[in-house]
Specification:
Elements: H1 7-10, H2 13-22, H3 38-48, H4 53-60, H5 64-72, E1 75-76, E2 92-93
Antiparallel strand pairs: 1-2
């Protein structure tokens, strides 16, 4: 859920002055800290249970494309010279939590 707040009410004056040097006025989006959201955690959990992107999309009420975008952020190719426990796995999970 997106939260909105008046910067003058939540930020110290020195921080607000610094921000205004770079962004005088308007709406400024501050991205999350990189921790996975509840939805992202649910998508990863369902993938680990063996569900495909289409099934996951239906369960979490997101498009298949969005599910694939989220999953892509959590995959990385294994390092060269390392073997996977399961030879059919082409990727390893890179989970940030």
């Amino acid at each position: 859920m997106t939260k909105y707040a008046n910067a003058e009410k939540v930020l110290p004056n020195y921080v607000l002055r610094s921000i205004r040097e770079h962004f005088p006025s308007g709406l400024l989006w501050i991205p999350p800290d990189g921790s996975p959201s509840k939805t992202e955690k649910e998508i990863i959990r369902l993938l680990k249970q063996g569900l495909g992107a289409s099934e996951i999309a239906l369960k979490v009420h997101r498009s298949r494309r969005r599910v694939n975008q989220i999953l892509k952020a959590y995959w990385e190719e294994p390092e060269k010279g390392t073997e996977s426990e399961d030879e059919t796995d082409d990727f390893q999970y890179r989970i940030r939590y």
